[in-house]
Amino acid sequence: MALTFIYPEYEVIRNSERCITCRVCERQCANEAHEFLAGIDKMVCDDSKCVNCHRCVSLCPTHALKITKSGNTYKQNSNWGGKYIDEIYKQAESGGVLLSGMGNPENYPVYFDKILLNASQVTNPPIDPLREPMETKISLGAKPQNIKRDKDGKLINNLPPRLSLSMPLMFSAMSYGSISYNAHECLARAAKELGILYNTGEGGLHNDFYQYGDNTIVQVASGRFGVHPDYLNTGAAIEIKMGQGAKPGIGGHLPGAKIVGDISRTRMIPEGSDAISPAPHHDIYSIEDLRQLVYSLKEVTNYQKPVIVKIAAVHNVTAIASGIARSGADIIAIDGFRGGTGAAPTRIRDHVGIPIELALASVDQRLREEGIRENVSIVVGGSIRQSADIVKAIALGADCVYIATAALMALGCHLCRSCYTGKCNWGIATQMPELKKRLNPDIGYQRLVNLINAWRHEIKEMMGGMGINSIESLKGNRLMLRGIGLNEKELSILGIRHAGE
Amino acid sequence: MKHLIIGNSAAAIGAVEGIRQMNKSDQITIISDEPYFTYSRPLISYLLSGKLSLEKMNYRSKSFYEDNHVTFKYAHAEKVDHLNKQVFLDDGDQMSYDKLLIATGSKAFIPPFAGLESVENKTTFLSLDDVKKLDAMGLESKRVLIIGAGLIGLKCAEGITKKAQSVTVLDLAPQILSSILDYDSSLIVKQHLEKKGINFILSATAEKFTQNTLTLKDKTQIDFDILVLCVGVRPNASLLSGIAAIEKGVVINERAETSVPDIYAAGDVTNGVAILPNAYVTGECAGINMAGGNKTISKMLPMNAIGFFGLNIITAGNYTGSIFELNKDSEFKRLFYQDGLLNGYIMIGNIAKAGIYTSLIREQTKLDTLDFPLICEKPQLMAFRLEERLEKLGGKVERMKFFQPEI
Amino acid sequence: MKRVYVNEKWCLGCRLCEYYCAFQETKESDMARALKGIKINPRINIEEKNGISFAVSCRHCEDALCVKGCITGALSKKEEVILIDKERCVSCYTCILSCPYGAISPSQDGAIKKCELCTDSASGIPACVKGCPNNAIVFEERLG
Q: What is the DSSP string of B239-304?
């Protein structure tokens, strides 16, 4: 018998007064946590199988269920928290690397929560967005260095290809394979309706979604799955993925079992073969190599598509960003250490990378200092949780933000962080037929549209309060920000003053 | 347009509703030799048992004639003059028509038993008046003998078991309900009825009646107080005899027309299957065509739903071909199939979703387009192909490639 | 007119429709109080096998065999909705014999039961439609 018994972290509490044994919980739990005991006409639950995804809680028609933290505890120890003890037992048993899903949940500072926004009083009065125009449209890409005229003195349009968005937000990369077909359909349809873009991730683009090409960023990552000229030319922009905030320095691995049917076709790899995305791009070991890929992609697409280079926020992000800005890329995407993933080694996810707020502020500052800020737009992600985070990111210098975790939550994700099991009860991070049909795109896409429209309203209200009537006027406007509870160093990196100053 | 309908049951009401689907203005007259509001004939046993009150016998809501502008006339039609389009009534009246519907139903068939006239308390069991007659005889502490173990005889038996001292059902056939059950299944029902106190004498030939005693061919004597004759029914087609083609009943085509122009017939009076749903449907078809429409009906399927003391029986079609049988607990089922089609079925006890089987027979569904073992197990739409399910449940027909299990 | 349609593609077989249907019938305000300890007999039923599932309820057929065959006149059609008058039904089950969808079932109260599109509900939307978490049951107008 195994020595290890790890007491479930959560317990499913059933109010037996309210339970009518309709067995919806049982039918909806892919982890088979709930069970109906016919003999005694009772529902029971095996808490050890529960991943705390709240599917049963949400669907229980009598609201008889809740999930609480279990009371089981080891002897109190400020150094050896229960989590570390459990992990040691798990690894002693398995000998394996610990895996996790979604973003870094650990107790690191969230700088967005230590930054406050300004509002106008008396002078420079606030603007009421319901009564006055408020511009949330943005445009991404490189800007021309100089004005060119023809021999008649007329302006030559030398504007590089740019992306036009109805608001400074895009859905960041999640591959078809890591999330379901239906989840992709939700993102694609919502992006189209909202006038923004979504991102294929490194899984290629399913044939059915070519129709959303104008709202699609097609990604090229180290595995190069599903990349071909049609794919590149279909998207509105191309993203080269160098790194990901959840697992900087780490590649990806989609097990062969998930490479079936349309996923295999879309990725252009045989059914059943593992999809391994190497940690590095094997043809990129320098900015010069990166430049070659950037221009290869531009060549294929006839210089019509902006190229995005996405990196994880790591210690020397400023230098890397500076290189990228000189590589010919049009947009730099930076993914903070809170960024999500379908699966990552827990230690990497929880201990590698830096906060996006600091990375953004320093990259923006560095590019300005070097006079190359206009070469590129900056998109930041990992993790934007609500509309105020967007306003703060833009004021810190971002042109646009990427969201993914929040988008999945709109589709039903309850952050149970078990994506890597492939048994997502909400039909998002799964390819199991009976599970993926739980996400009806007609509902999902509408929820996404609702969420983003709500944020758009909030952004307008916050800008209006500051007396600002366009995103362009907010961009890099760090005077609109004040720190709270931050030390001098942090303030100086963020380039903002402390509240009260 | 003047429509004359002779009869006041399901076929007649079906015709009224058929005519009114076409227009609200045509004149409709119903002639009935029963002085009652339209009532449901199959319900007479419920009235007898006291399960239903007289007013609950009504086949339509009380305002039906008014709502549909129907003139009701209580009279017996004696003669049809198809050349002058006239109907002569027993009260001396004569009525002209543009379109005539004969919906006179059926009448009890009474075999020429010797000595039958010596039996004082006897009746048939077809109409409301029969129930009244039976009630008037006072069932309490009486021994009732029912001749005929068919649907009518057994429904009558069920209706009086509680009241009468004893109920004995006699039939020439070796089984009960031979019109709807095969031998094996009839045993299940017989056993159930016996448990409820009904006695059966089967394979018995009545030889003669002498007042309150019946002597069988094997010389057995059966004493009784009341005799109910439920041997069978015959189409009540005499009105058209010598006028229109009659085989057993009035011959009609798929438009419910008889061989005589402007005369239609529907329900039990015709050659069709004598059950209420068919009566209504042929009546409705006749009505639509009488009012100038163009409705056709396909051949009617024999089918039946009946219950005795809580035991439900549903049957349809004919019982030829290979048999799938399920017989466990309180559930009995037989499916009869041949050449890739379902011919008929018998369900006793669990009758859930039986209509799905009926539709297989009615639609002549090819069984190789179904999951046959699955539909044998129980009637279900799951056994149909995806496209058919989608059509049945109204979903858009599209190729559903992304949720079907990938093979 | 609006009818209940079933999108098999999105049916999860969760059977919430059955429970919301049974709940609606009780006219109670709280489902736990209404259905605690009760074996439900809903007017909509899920068929389920090998990961495929769909809900079946009355189609309110244009050519309604159940209405035509009803021996008591308990089944009738008003404004395209097939209604059951429980007072008049004698549970002869001729309708069960006739219905090609298996959408009519016996009940404990001596009458058959079938979907009446929640004609008596305040919202006008059938309870099964409201209770379906995945739009697998919809209430809409469709051609044909």
A: GGTTTS-BSSSB---TTSB-SSTTEEE-GGGBSS--SHHHHHHHHHHHHHHHTT------PPPPEE
